[in-house]
Amino acid sequence: MQTIACSRQLARDRYLGALLFNLVAFVLPALYGTLSKLWVARLDSSAVATTDVYTYIGVIVEVINEGLPRAVWIIIGNKASRTLSSRLQLTYTLILFQSLMGFIMSIVIVSAADRFASVFVPLESRRISITYVRISAFSALSSALEVSVSNATRALDKPDVPVVISSVKFIINIILDFILISSFHIGAVRPTVNLQGTIRLACDMGSALAGLAYLIYIARSRLKEHGHFWVNVTYNAGTLGVLARPGAIFFLESAVRNTLYLWLVAGIVSMGSDYATAWGVFNTIRWGLIMVPVQALEATSLTFVGHKWGELRHRITRTCGNRRPKGDLLNIVKPALISAGIALLVEVPLCIFLAFFGCQRFALYLSGSQVVSEITAEMWRSIDWYLSF
Question: Where in the cell is it found (predicted)?
């Protein structure tokens, strides 16, 4: 009986099981981001700042990735009031719309590659960075597709889909980078930062499409179990409106926040190559180490808060009541409180360790520059306590 109970707790529709899946899904891309930074530094330390273009494009596309995809937790995650077919149609509408927005954003960035490089790449690396910007521009499309698939499937209690995406991306990236751009690369191939960007884009797009294919396979299997054979996947303005209403506030908040962030980055880049590289290394440490548990805990808590919110709304609708007892509200926020407690237990010791012992050494290992590592350590002591908490 204990074995059965333990197995049940590790199921994808339980908090612990979903958290474990989400940890794997977030740790693999973070690990690859750290390794790729290391390999580029070994090839040409001056090109490290160029690879941060990929990150800054990600910040821009985050504006659309935090709009409608943030609404999935209370819309698609509402399994108490919505049928499976309805939730899947919302999922497909989200994916189609986000992919279109990502494609448009990619075209805009390609068209403005010169201007983008002049703002986000230090002068010393700017000439060789324009091609990298054009290559990385289409990461906006792959990111929009990946985030929409990942968020929707988590809301559908299928956190294994993001794991598939991350695993495919990580394995193929590592193999190709090892063969083509690492210190052990094939002799006939000349490793360059543009080659690294091409490999990364191809793997991002391939893994996102693999996740989409896996989602379609799971959806068809689930629908057959419920006596259906397919769901209308065409664009539906009414369905889009259901997502847009709660998603609008997330979109506006993200647009303001990320605009301010990019303004900050542009100022740092204007200070020179060392500061631009240090900021990139700082973010690699932060997102590749510190934020992995936080992202996993956030995704898990959002999933279950969405489920519980849907259950409360369904119960109130059925009873024609408008009372919200404190016990119900506490039950809704319980997953978020658990996640916050775990995050503090993990993050506080880790931040203290890096602030006093590990940050400069890790930055030196990633950048290969003593000056950059010292700037990164100072950034950590000055900034990351605020950013982490």
Answer: Cell membrane
Q: Is position 220 within any domain? A: yes
Q: Are residues 93 and 224 in the same domain?
A: yes
Angle between helices 84-111 and 48-65 (to 10 degrees): 140
- The dihedral built from the CA positions of residue 165, 28, 278 and 378, taken in this order, carries a sign that is positive
For residue 73, the number of C-alpha atoms closer than 13 Å in the C-beta half-sphere is 18
Amino acid at 295: Q
Is residue 257 domain-shared with residue 285, that is, in the same domain? no
Range of the domain at 353: 13-43+272-388
Same domain (yes/no): 264, 145: yes
Pick the range with the lowest mean pLDDT from 20-29, 39-48, 111-120, 364-373.
39-48
Whether 295 and 227 share a structural domain: no
Q: Would residue 1 count as lying in a domain?
A: no
The pTM assigned to this predicted structure is 0.85
Task: Give yes or no for a contact between 95 and 212, defined as CB atoms under 8 angstroms apart.
Answer: yes
Residue 27 is which amino acid? Answer: V
Q: How far is CA 18 from CA 27, 179, 217, 303, 379, in A?
A: 14, 34, 20, 9, 34
Structural domain contains residue 5: no
Do 39 and 62 fall into the same domain? no
Residues 6+ apart with CB under 8 A from 175: none
> Would you give the distance in Å from CA 374 to the centre of its chain?
28
Q: Among the residues of 10-138, which ranges form H helices?
A: 15-43, 48-65, 84-111, 113-120, 130-136
pLDDT tens string 213-234? 999 998 888 777 766 655 555 5
Task: Name the residue among 282, 209, 299, 231 with its Cα closest to residue 27.
Answer: 299
Report yes or no on 110 lying in a domain.
yes
Angstrom distance (rounded) from CA 131 to CA 125: 12
